[in-house]
Amino acid sequence: MRYVSTRGGGKPAGFSDILLGGLMEDGGLAVPERYPQLRAGQLGQLRKLSYRDLALEILRLYAGDVPFSDLKRIVEQSYTSAIFRSEDITPLRRLEAGVYVLGLSNGPTLAFKDVAMQLLGNLFENALAKNGAQLNIVGATSGDTGSAAEYAMRGKRGIRVFMLSPHEKMSPFQTAQMFSLQDPNIFNIAIRGVFDDCQDIVKSISNDLDFKARYKVGTVNSINWARVVAQVVYYFKGYFAATTSDDQQVSFAVPSGNFGNVCAGHIARSMGLPIKRLIVATNENDVLDEFFRTGIYRVRPSDKVHQTSSPSMDISKASNFERFIYDLIGRDGNEVKRLWQQVESDGVFDLSNTPHFARIADFGFVSGRSTHADRIETIRRVYRERGQIIDTHTADGIKVGLENREESVPLICLETALPVKFGATIEEALGRAPDVPVGLENLEQLPQRFEVLDADVGAVKQFIETNCRN
Ligand SMILES: *Cc1c(COP(=O)(O)O)cnc(C)c1O
Questions:
Q1: What's the domain range around 370?
Q2: Which protein residue has the closest C-alpha to ligand 1 atom 14?
Q3: Where on the phi/psi map is residue 354: left (φ > 0), alpha (ψ -120 to 50), or beta?
């Protein structure tokens, strides 16, 4: 399997070549030359497999240049019942007749990003060990991504993580999750400022090519291809858990921000998994809902991004969306390049009057939007009627999923976080706190390890330099 850029430039590359990188040379995203197609009868074989074996069968299609024995070991290290608190890794539970919740959030940081990040940590360590190389991951987080990255990279040889977060602005639970890590290769940097300050510092470091090369700086952001492909596995797993025969269809409802999760659903469907609908759920930051309803992709200026009670979906643009548009417009890299140049200059492109937009339905996509009031109402109703507590992002997915559900097609709603991460909103909805998972009762009392720095690139660079020497 070789990878090309969504913008048509550069030479095709192997999985290992794009594993540690971010954007392709021409500024596009890596996509496979074509999606592997399921053979007749193959679903029946895959249906019998454990999560680990299923993951191995799917990942080997995309990571052909990682030796099979390495990939097997990496998958077996990543997807254990000890790490994911369940032998199923992503267990399916019933919400009501024909409606299910796929639990993606039982990993170390209680959000779905662990599923991909745990694999990525082991893939990175393996790749670096091959050539005795080092990697310093520098990132900015307001919560889920940073903690998932730290828990995936802790203790990994050849890797250090420098994670910037806004000082005293994350929830106490999220702060404790990150700052209680004592591993010597994990560095939490609390910046006196807001999330945008953290992101600006990371951008500025990424733009300093000299510094970047000298200190082997890399990232783990949501455009990383390996993260997307790791997520393809649980669409298969969810499909098998909700059906009994291979001619049935299901639909998925996906709480969406950067379009990474639902992009994996699109890939699973493109491989031949019988997915009827991919239901994209957004919060008040409805860039994606606007596109799927109107054909207009209009990014928001960062001061127009709403701070919501499903904060991991608070985005101004959807960084993986380019991968889907590439497929939608018939894999024409020059056209994708033109569209994103337009986004750069005007903040918008419009496909509404093109034959491409008319084909949206062929790709299974529908969408909807959910607000704070919807979230509260959905959390209350699911608790009252089903006795289950769901988190705010999952509530957005369930709300929009039920609105777009077809009676005869089972609906699988993806659970992207556990409610304990967003306790304040659960209290508001239910007048009670969510349960704390076993083993995390005392998380907020644990000693914390972090460095407070000013919102100053120089100070952060200095900190990285000092800690790279040790
Ligand atoms: C990251 C995240 C999302 C959004 O996923 P994308 O892949 O960016 O669309 C939704 N819910 C939670 C809890 C998240 O952490």
A1: 92-109+225-430
A2: 312
A3: beta
